[in-house]
Amino acid sequence: MMSDTLTNRATPDAATQLDIYRRMLRIERNDDATQTQIRRGRITAPYYSGRGQECIPAAISNLLNDDDKICTIYRGIHDMVAKDMPLKPLWAEIMGKVDGTCKGKGGPMHLTHPETGVMVTTGVVGSSMPIANGFGWAALLDGSKQVTIAYFGDGASNIGAFHESLNLASVWKLPVIFVCQNNGFAEHTRYENGTSVDYIAKRAIGYGMPGYTVDGNDPVDVWQHAYEAIERARAGEGPTLLECKTFRFCGHLIGDDNKYMDPGELDAAKEKDPLPKYRQKLIDDGVVTEAQLEEMKTAIEAEVQEAIEFGVASEFPPMEELRRDVFAEEIPA
Amino acid sequence: MSAETMDKVETVKMTGVAAINAAIDEAMAADEKVIMLGEDVADREGGGVVGVSRGLSTKYGDLRVRSTPIAEQSIMGAAIGAAMAGYKPIAEIMLMNFTTVAMDMIVNHAAKLRFMSGGQSQVPLVIRTLTGAGNQTAGQHADFYEAWFCHTAGIKVVVPTFPADFKGLYLSAIQDPDPVIIIETGMTLFVPGEVPVNQGPIPLGKANVVVPGSDVTIVSYGSQMYRVMQAMEGLGEAGISAEVIDLRTISPWDKQTVLASAEKTGRLLVVHEAGKNFGPGAEICQTASENLWGKLKAAPMRLGAPYCSVPFAKKLEDAYLIQPADVVAAAKTICGK
After folding, report:
1. Taking 60 as the threshold, does the pLDDT of residue B5 lie above it?
2. Residues of B with CB below 8 A from A321's CB?
3. Contacts of B68 in chain A (CB under 8 A)
4. Which DSSP string do the residues of A55-121 spell out, in sequence order?
5. Among candidate residues B266, B328, B264, B326, the one with its CA nearest the CA of residue B299
6. Are residues B86 and B125 in contact, defined by beta-carbon separation less than 8 angstroms?
7. Torsion of CA A71, A73, A75, A78, to 10 degrees
8. Which chain A residues in 232-291 lie under 8 Å from chain B, judged by CB atoms?
9. How far apart are CA A247 and CA B12, in angstroms?
């Protein structure tokens, strides 16, 4: 058995299915524009693309409210865009500009936007998980129904933070969902060369929580398992480990030569690209028309374009920013 | 609190442990956002390794005062998340050496999230941790790592010495909008002292002139402060009038008070239990050199632990620590006596 199995599956209605697609497309269009701007030299920071992994946060975010929280990692812009983070401050930030969400002081690896629940983006593998537990504890203290998603990769399931966090979340019955986006590689190391089990979801047994291995290319499969996990968390029944099997289409970071992959492996993965497949399914199922989808795409591309222009027009942060935000009180010059 | 002002206020005698307990109790009663976590902190587990949190889980409930697994990274992570969600967690890392296994959370996250988020993230938490040599706990239970944290922008470092300071500094640290690590030491926790009945917050970043003097400024903190006080008799016998400053907050430190005193006496001696090499004493002495060059009568001097791990054998441990006689000898040297 690769994981626990769902006994009952909720059914996403047409609006839900379309919303998931909208989030996926927004991620993909934003990623495509990011790669273009990197080639044009407008973004100089390393970029860890989430291309290929869209449907995981898209399906999960459909189930989240603005005040539900996510803690994510350096490969996390797709998680934020899925959570409906506005693109203007995102773009200004990745360009290192003062109108960025972090005033240009965090960059793509530390994007933060509390209004949409993007609480922490960490550049340290595994470190989204211990902090997510704190938001879970706060929700219990508040007596709220808020949930927190801790996103991380397959590589992070081998670091100590994973163990400590899942154990504590289980003991304290925290409303946290641990979402492993298993893209098959930890930096350049293949999954099986660094991970002791064939399915990360199996590790959930060791922490006394449910663990599901989900097809990360199937938005409905992800949504149904996330639905179960989120309901469980909101009901006070504790955490869940969701392993979503996926593939990263652009390597570890942009510029990666992918030499550590098998020949043909990337092409085979791209054959399973969930985006065009899901698009076709929605049309075939009569959820949406081709024309409506084109309209959606045009609107998203306009939003991305506006965000790029906003980022370009924004200024670099003033030197005083070196003294600000170290503490609440500004450091004297 | 100096001896003169102490006479005018009603005080109670209590230990550092009792003073911390009183401060946290007061803070928890006044503000429901103050919460606590750490190994064995709840009453079922004994209320903390030395009883600092005794009674608090019974009074405020197990959800606000939570014992944790022995898992420092997850303790700090939970504290950071809760702090960002609007709470004011007090996280106990039982011993300072165990902060090493939570360094990613403390250094990369607690200290930096405000800056990296452009001020959007606030991490108002207190880390309590205990350390100090003298009990033959050897190399992994007694280190002073304050210099590491002083070197990290975004976290305040506090080392109280006297019980009244524990009460006042804790009250400030708990309400501080930024992460604060408070380092406690055996002697400072258990030597009783007078604490004003209405002891309020003592601002962070303010040193305390414990003994006024004219020949040499001696700066110290924590348990080392007691060994400096024990040197006072020897200093008097040597005809040295020492002005003793309890630094209280190591970062950001009170440059104004220390430099004013050093300018007045013309001599500066910094004494700490942490290693001498690259220790806080180096920073303080160099700052004095940069600011008071030409006004000092002798080169600033520091005393700190030798470049080795904390040893086990009693004889070695005694030699490792800066003893009162070492302070007297150093003061004599700097005063040319």
Report:
1. no
2. 118
3. 168
4. HHHHHHHTT--TTSEEEEESS-HHHHHHTT--HHHHHHHHTT-TTSTTTTSS-GGG--BGGGTEEEE
5. B266
6. no
7. 10
8. none
9. 66
The average pLDDT across B89-114 equals: 98
pLDDT at B208: 98
Which among B77, B80, B116 has the least Cβ separation from residue A102? B116
Residue B260 has pLDDT above 60, yes or no: yes
- The fraction of chain B above a pLDDT of 70, given in percent, is 98
Among B196, B228, B244, identify where a domain stops.
B196
Answer whether A324 touches B (CB < 8 Å): yes
Instruction: Given the residues B39, B92, B109, B141, select the one marked as catalytic.
Output: B141
- Same domain for B151 and B67, yes or no, is yes
In terms of domains, do B169 and B225 share one?
no
Token pair 């506090």: residue: B158
Interface probe, candidates A141, A165, A321, chain B, greatest B C-beta count within 10 A: A141
Residue of chain A nearest B35, judged by CA positions: A141
Same domain, B28 and B166: yes
- Which structural domain range is residue B277 located in? 208-334
Phi then psi dihedrals of residue A109, to 5 deg? -85, -10
The answer as to whether B233 is a domain residue is yes
Q: Compute the distance between CA of residue A203 and CA of residue A190 in angstroms, rounded to an integer.
A: 18
In this structure, the answer to whether residues B223 and B110 fall within a common structural domain is: no
Lookup result for tokens 């909720």: A10
Q: Do B71 and A119 touch (CB under 8 A)?
A: no
Please give the pLDDT value at position A255: 85
Phi and psi dihedrals of B242, rounded to 5?
-100, 135
Residue the block writes with tokens 């290192």: A96
Residues B244, B300 within the same domain: yes
Positions in chain A short of pLDDT 50: none
Which tokens in the block code for residue A233?
């968390």
Judging contacts by C-beta atoms under 8 Å, the chain B residues touching residue A110 are 116-117
- Side-chain half-sphere exposure of A26, counting CA atoms within 13 A: 26
Amino acid present at B172: S
Domain ranges of chain A: 14-313
Domain A14-313 has CATH 3.40.50.300: no
- Quickly list H helices, chain B: 3-8, 16-30, 56-60, 72-84, 103, 113-116, 146-150, 163-175, 186-190, 223-229, 232-237, 255-265, 280-292, 314-320, 324-334
Angle at A83 between CA B154 and CA A35, to 5 degrees: 85
| Domain contains B181 | yes
Count of CA atoms in the C-beta half-sphere (13 A) of B241: 9
Question: Which residues make beta-bridge pairs with B156?
Answer: B180
pLDDT at B2: 52
Residue type present at position A64: L
pLDDT at A332: 86
The CATH code of the domain that includes B256 is 3.40.50.920
Count of domains in chain B?
Answer: 2
Query: Is the CB of B65 inside 8 Å of chain A's CB atoms?
Result: no
Is position B243 annotated as part of the catalytic site?
Answer: no
How much is the average pLDDT of B146-173?
Answer: 98
CA neighbours within 13 Å on the CB side: how many for A312?
12
Asked whether residue B192 falls in the same domain as residue B303, the answer is: no
Q: Looking at residue A3, what is its pLDDT? A: 80
User: Could you say which DSSP state residue A262 is in?
Assistant: P
**DSSP tag of B107:** I
Q: Do B235 and B331 touch, CB atoms closer than 8 A? A: yes
* Mean per-residue pLDDT over chain B, rounded: 96
pLDDT at residue A7, as a whole number: 83
Question: Which residues in chain B have Cβ-Cβ distances shorter than 8 Å to A132?
Answer: 77, 81
